[in-house]
Amino acid sequence: MFGEVYKAWDRVGRRLVAVKHLRGRPDAGFVPTNHHYFTREATSLAACRGHPSIVKLVATHADETHDIDGDFFVVTGYAGPINLRAYMKLRSKQGRPFQEHEVRDAMRQLLSGAKHVHKKGVLHRDMVPENVIVDKQSVRGEKMVYKIAGFGVSEPAVGAEKDGSAALASPEPYRAPELFLGSEDYDGRVDTWSLGCVMAELVTGDGGTAPFFSADVEAEPVFKKVLRVVGTKGILEWPGLKLLARRDVAAELREKGCASYAGCLRDMFPEEKLSEAGFEVLSGLLEPNPEHRLTAATALRKPWFRRRGLGGGCFVP
User: Fold this and answer.
1) Which among 63, 67, 126, 135 is annotated as catalytic?
2) Residue 216 annotated among the catalytic residues of the structure
3) What does each C-alpha distance from 210 to 126, 201, 291 come to in angstroms?
4) Which are the contacts of 84, defined by CB distance < 8 A and separation ≥ 6?
5) Calpha distance 190→20 (Å, rounded)
């Protein structure tokens, strides 16, 4: 893991905070973190300040007693007691599956946060349930609040991948097809793909036990499962496929018997499980062709997110 997070009391600001400890030295269970990754997280959080669906940066500290292997600390506002993975697991244990309106509310908040992150010129690259903090808000009725955290592998949108860190971007069950294929030319839609995976887990109710695209690597690699579920037409039609600096990917997919998958996403999410409007968002986020995949801003304009405002007009976040 890249660090430990502690709940603490800020005596100056008189508030609860979360302190992320990034170790500069290798330790049991920890990956040493250098100044580059510390700066990456702090800079991205600072750039993305001011949105209710993103944890708030409070302070940073670098241990100056060690020039090479000092420890680093990132302090953010306390966002809640549990991450989304643990919350999904809790709901499953309680026999309380997420209703569609709950999924919609969670996705509205997460996509709104992602939209802000991308507008500020940042790619998060690790939109997974473990990096979403969940809390309950009791203002004007009870409401679940979701905040994006975990900016440790984030990257500036301009010139992404220049530091060769794409291998760290998104664990396999949340990795967009273009990253699996080794593309170095990607944008915020790698994040919306990951959010599509999160949405699928919320709808199925299985996210507390395993990711939607979890797979037995020996029996079926994750990428093969991805293609089987969403189909291969989109990725084979993606112009960027021909620009990849590797052998003919289309031919490789045909050799592996993956090039003719029609996809079964709708079969997995029939209308009794997810409405037509909801499926339009899910399938748009899990579109294998990145050029046709929904951005966060476009997703939020879909009918699923529209609601009645004052005077009968419709508005979206």
Assistant:
1) 126
2) no
3) 17, 9, 28
4) 129, 130, 132, 133, 134, 146, 198, 207
5) 25
Of 195, 179, 199, 50, the residue nearest 119 (C-alpha): 50
| Topology at the third CATH level for domain 82-315 | Transferase(Phosphotransferase); domain 1 (1.10.510)
- Cα 260 → chain centroid: 28
The neighbouring-strand residues paired with 72 are: 22, 62
Architecture (CATH level 2) of domain 4-77: 2-Layer Sandwich (3.30)
Q: Model confidence over 193-223: pLDDT tens digits?
A: 999 999 999 999 887 788 999 877 666 789 8
What would the pLDDT profile of 230-254 be if each residue is shown by its tens digit?
999 898 889 888 777 555 666 667 6
Measured CA to CA, the distance from residue 89 to residue 79 in angstroms comes to: 19
Is 1 within 8 Å of 22 (Cβ atoms)? no
Domain with CATH 3.30.200.20 in the chain: 4-77
Model pTM above 0.70: yes
- Position 300: which residue type? L
* Tokens describing residue 251: 């031919």
